[in-house]
Amino acid sequence: MSKKILVVAGDGIGPEIVAEAIKVLNALQADGAIDVTLEEALVGGAAYDAVGNPLPEETLTKAKASDAVLLGAVGGPKWESLHISKRPERGLLGLRAELGLFANLRPAVLYPQLAAASTLKPEIVAGLDIMIVRELTGDIYFGQPRGVETLPSGERRGINTMVYTESEVERICRVAFDIAMKRGKKVCSVDKANVLECTEMWREVATKTAAEYPEISLSHMYVDNAAMQLVRAPKQFDVMVTGNIFGDILSDCAAMLTGSIGMLPSASLNEKGQGMYEPIHGSAPDIAGRGVANPLATILSVGMMLRYSLDAPEAADRIDAAVFKVLDQGLRTADIMSEGMRQVGTAEMGDAVVAALAGE
Amino acid sequence: MSKKILVVAGDGIGPEIVAEAIKVLNALQADGAIDVTLEEALVGGAAYDAVGNPLPEETLTKAKASDAVLLGAVGGPKWESLHISKRPERGLLGLRAELGLFANLRPAVLYPQLAAASTLKPEIVAGLDIMIVRELTGDIYFGQPRGVETLPSGERRGINTMVYTESEVERICRVAFDIAMKRGKKVCSVDKANVLECTEMWREVATKTAAEYPEISLSHMYVDNAAMQLVRAPKQFDVMVTGNIFGDILSDCAAMLTGSIGMLPSASLNEKGQGMYEPIHGSAPDIAGRGVANPLATILSVGMMLRYSLDAPEAADRIDAAVFKVLDQGLRTADIMSEGMRQVGTAEMGDAVVAALAGE
Ligand SMILES: [Mg+2]
Ligand SMILES: [Mg+2]
Q1: pLDDT at B85 > cutoff 90
Q2: Distance CA B238, CA A167 (A)
């Protein structure tokens, strides 16, 4: 049966990069590798401009009825003065919350062809391939009580609460273990169990859940040490699993190790396997509409979609291989350009991936 | 009047590295650069072995009566099975708490002679000189409520609370601004103000306090972006100021950028200017007693002590210059050894610093 994909291009370079990802989906559809139906909807600033709401009811209904959502990017200076409830980012956060997307998958992969882009020495990062699994709906970003109160003395006091239940920890650990089973079978759970009771419980649950995965080698690391180790020897990691705030920090740190964040996709999954897929980079309003944005992170996000929500791992492998091939061919968008390579625009890069998919 | 320094050597390599730091203090005393009185006391595993308590009352009394405490390192496998209240680390935490050491100063400095030790490319890190000012007595590490509760469903739920009052934020910002006034006058305050109300308040207080320091250029950065920027372009930073948990993560990340954590000192100050000074590295039980440990971080901690608690900035400058000189001479302990340099032991390195101080 045909799988449904909702495409929400969003703002800035969103429409341009998503157009290239759609070319890739169409090519795979044409040669019978996948069977998908695409729909489009508005989100972010584009939705606000059209209907006064960054997440229109219609978009949400369509998203819930889809197997996967492909998102470009949202936001831009045009909407920054809006009330927080109307800002483009609300569209994104609303989709995450309404779909229950609790598992954020953030690969940090450094293609050997781009090793020079890293600020780290090539021998430290060449071949880097980490998958960070970040819990996305709990932790201190959502915990109650929260806010700023005024004490009897008149002084203000700010509070946020880190909260996890055992079941929340267990389900994110299962996601990490399942992914690790298809990779190197090594999971590093990151916590601050020596100081924070909440994460001490996290460690216990991770350990207990791992008992059901005898092939998985589980290790534990304190978050401050994890930040050090990512800089010292990042290739020691296979899959990392951690809470929302630690994952926020570590996934961005790991992404930057590659030096080419225009190449990095992401996935956010719920318990039913529905997912939202998007590049980790932003809407880059400064270069929007100029046809120079790098579409590869969005195309690789389609690859993750095929792997994690559409049960088409072979087609996903083909996308990964096609991206590898265009890099081998020396094609580079401006953000990853280096000497001796050939600089191409957004559409030319998308076309090159489609050609590589066809084995040309 | 003579200033009082309490020396607590601690465990593992602690006594060896502290012995070299004392040589440096004695040399400065001998040539009239400083006027100090040294006392010694037990802390950590050494104290537990002697009197059954990692922080004996006598040590605490002496520490409170001192202008500064010089600490080597605490801990080791010998004491790991002890109850948490008796572990060596309790001695350290107890000293911090009892002295009210709320301001942790963590320089991340990469000596040009050691630029190759970094996992980052030399052009990214050579000349790195960041001062991270971390709040040390508040935040989620101390906030109430905390712990693990059992819900009516039988499921457990872990909680920790991030808490800051305005006055806590203001006093740590003042420390950062005061330090920045003696450096590049640039302070980056790190928060997660877009998500956490507690740190939104932090940002407001930082901004308000900065108004009293018209020469300071204050910027704000989200913690996940700060972790990225430390990897991407660490030399953009002069002084960073942040809360306890973000500071824990970022200061370790920044330290590892240098690739030579055997070189990094630290200070923890209270409102009276009393301070505890210690290398950031641990007690390294695996190499203890072999005379191969690097004493330079401890010697540089003495430099910080002279600068921040003993009002002897010129003597502090002399220590920094002497360490620079021994590195220029090609002397290296095992942890920072590289080709073409001369490997020396702990005592020989200490002697070389003393000789460099004397202008030899
Ligand atoms: Mg982030
Ligand atoms: Mg730490």
Answers
A1: no
A2: 43
